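Practice problem 4.
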């Protein structure tokens, strides 16, 4: 089974507290999502491979480490995942960016794919799939399937708030996709919203409601 990790760094937890508050403005919400994504990227990239390389400093020759593993693609699930892209790219500036458009039908909660555009060499890249919310897991599962169909082999899922139902669903479907979250919440309500959650991430991020 894949790993599920809650990144409970104090800075992340503090910023998440402000994010959850219904009185937080769109401007602050957007900035906080960006900051939390950057902090999480630091942990999500912890197992990146390194190799030895010899360099010359102004003083002496020395052997130091540099990244040697797969290159990275950051793939947001639209819309809300867009808010996490810049934060990750601040830490991994050479990353390529793909997009998967997916919306959840408000009644059936079923995800609908409307757009997929990925880097051509997605099969050679480590994919960090980003979305603030993992609720039923339907959107994440379909996005992972869309990535795999196009050749992606190494995929990590990074979310801000996860519901136990979503974690279970993704783990059951994909034993090879590790999941990272800033929080594991209690449950889903009858409308498929995470409780206590933070509400509708897309609407809060873009100010559409
Ligand atoms: C939200 C969220 C996830 C999805 C999670 O997107 O950003 O993509 O719901 O729910 P699930 O785990 O039950 O599939 P939404 O469909 O509201 O679209 P948006 O990002 O365009 O607002
Ligand atoms: N999508 C959201 O934006 N929020 C939730 O709580 C669940 C799905």
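Answer key:
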């Amino acid at each position: 089974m894949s790993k599920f990790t809650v990144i409970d760094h104090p800075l992340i937890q503090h910023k998440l507290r402000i994010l959850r508050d219904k009185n937080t403005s769109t401007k602050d919400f957007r900035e906080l999502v960006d900051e939390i994504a950057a902090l999480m990227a630091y942990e999500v990239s912890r197992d990146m491979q390194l190799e030895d390389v010899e360099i010359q400093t102004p003083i002496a020759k020395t052997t130091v480490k540099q990244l040697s593993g797969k290159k990275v693609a950051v793939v947001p699930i639209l819309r809300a995942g867009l808010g996490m892209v810049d934060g990750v790219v601040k830490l991994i500036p050479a990353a390529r960016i793909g997009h998967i458009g997916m919306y959840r039908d408000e009644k059936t909660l079923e995800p609908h794919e409307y757009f997929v555009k990925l880097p051509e060499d997605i099969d050679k890249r480590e994919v960090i799939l980003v979305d603030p919310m993992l609720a039923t897991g339907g959107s994440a599962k379909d996005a992972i399937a869309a990535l795999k169909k196009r050749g992606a082999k190494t995929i990590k899922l990074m979310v801000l708030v996860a519901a136990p139902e979503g974690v279970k669903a993704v783990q059951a479907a994909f034993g090879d996709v590790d999941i990272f979250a800033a929080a594991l919440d209690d449950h889903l309500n009858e409308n498929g919203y995470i409780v206590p959650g933070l509400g509708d991430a897309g609407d809060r991020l873009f100010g559409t409601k």
